[in-house]
């Protein structure tokens, strides 16, 4: 297998210009990152969606910077030749700029991320400008922003009317001006996402944003229905059913343990008779004669 070289933000911009779609997967651990890299995924996002998907929370809000550092470091170990972006979790970039930079430093130095992702539009642009000015690539995120779900009134499709579409366009342009190298568009109507994409020189990556964007991102657990129960989503295509496979495997494992059919002869290790004799002596005879 040829050695894979990670993308950088210059190559990503060139891919947009040439019409080459970017593939991105959200992953949270070492083995998943390994498999994604082996498959040729362009970028991996360590999303704060780990709160819902991995940690069992009802939202992304409880996720801490320490959670993100831990999972990002695991992903980078598994995908050392892939561009890895780490989410800045809730309220880690809305205080003082010193606090924001400390959190960015954690993700970069301790988590070994290549870039950070931040939710929001014009209201975060001053922070984006400062962070990119410090040499850290920033991926923007507009549309449905889960960290603001309580403020925006739930998980609603964005860009359904002219006013909302104009807001998204202005946010996207402001993020580009502030130095973001790309923007995630989440749950945005296809027409609006396509128009925003045409107005930017930086790539857009869609999740539930239709076909006119520069790339796509999906969560690993959605791609492979790795959940119980799994809830279907309109914007997701399932490429496998790991959940059913794993559940059936567990059921069979429990059954064979209860029946004592596992382990069988092929799974055990045996010692030479002399070893047993030296260890247990006459006690072995009593056991065998019992």
Automatic annotation (TrEMBL):
Q: Where exactly are the transmembrane stretches of this chain? A: none
Residues annotated to bind 3-methyl-2-oxobutanoate: 48-49, 87, 117
Query: One GO term of the cellular component aspect?
Result: cytoplasm
Q: Which Pfam families match?
A: Pantoate_transf
What cofactor is needed? Mg(2+)
Q: Where does Mg(2+) bind?
A: 48, 87, 119
Q: Which domain of life is it from?
A: Bacteria
Q: In the record, what terms sit under GO molecular function? A: 3-methyl-2-oxobutanoate hydroxymethyltransferase activity; magnesium ion binding; methyltransferase activity
Instruction: List the HAMAP family hit by this protein, alphabetically.
Output: PanB
Function according to Swiss-Prot or TrEMBL: Catalyzes the reversible reaction in which hydroxymethyl group from 5,10-methylenetetrahydrofolate is transferred onto alpha-ketoisovalerate to form ketopantoate.
Name of this protein: 3-methyl-2-oxobutanoate hydroxymethyltransferase
User: Which organism does this sequence originate in?
Assistant: Paenibacillus dendrobii
């Amino acid at each position: 297998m040829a050695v894979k070289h990670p993308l950088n933000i210059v190559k990503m911009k060139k891919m947009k210009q040439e019409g080459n779609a970017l593939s991105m997967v959200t992953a949270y651990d070492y083995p998943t990152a390994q498999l994604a890299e082996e498959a040729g995924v362009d970028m991996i996002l360590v999303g704060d969606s780990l709160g819902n998907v991995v940690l069992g929370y009802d939202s992304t809000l409880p996720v801490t910077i320490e959670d993100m550092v831990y999972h990002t470091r695991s992903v980078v170990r598994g995908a050392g030749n892939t561009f890895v972006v780490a989410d800045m979790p809730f309220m880690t970039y809305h205080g003082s700029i010193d606090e924001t930079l400390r959190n960015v430093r954690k993700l970069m130095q301790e988590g070994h991320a290549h870039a950070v992702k931040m939710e929001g539009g014009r209201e975060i642009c001053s922070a984006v400008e400062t962070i990119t000015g410090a040499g850290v690539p920033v991926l923007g995120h507009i549309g449905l922003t889960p960290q603001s779900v309580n403020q925006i009134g739930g998980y609603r499709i964005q860009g359904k009317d002219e006013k909302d579409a104009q807001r998204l366009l202005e946010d996207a342009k402001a993020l580009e001006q502030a130095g973001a190298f790309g923007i995630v568009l989440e749950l945005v109507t296809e027409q609006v996402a396509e128009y925003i994409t045409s107005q930017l020189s930086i790539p857009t990556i869609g999740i539930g944003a239709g076909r006119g964007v520069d790339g796509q991102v999906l969560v690993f657990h959605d791609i492979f229905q790795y959940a119980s129960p799994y809830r279907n989503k309109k914007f997701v295509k399932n490429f496998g059913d790991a959940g059913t496979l794993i559940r059936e495997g567990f059921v069979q494992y429990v059954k064979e343990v209860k029946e004592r059919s596992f382990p069988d002869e092929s799974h055990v290790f045996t010692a030479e008779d002399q070893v047993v004799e030296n260890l247990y002596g006459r006690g072995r005879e009593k056991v065998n004669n019992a």
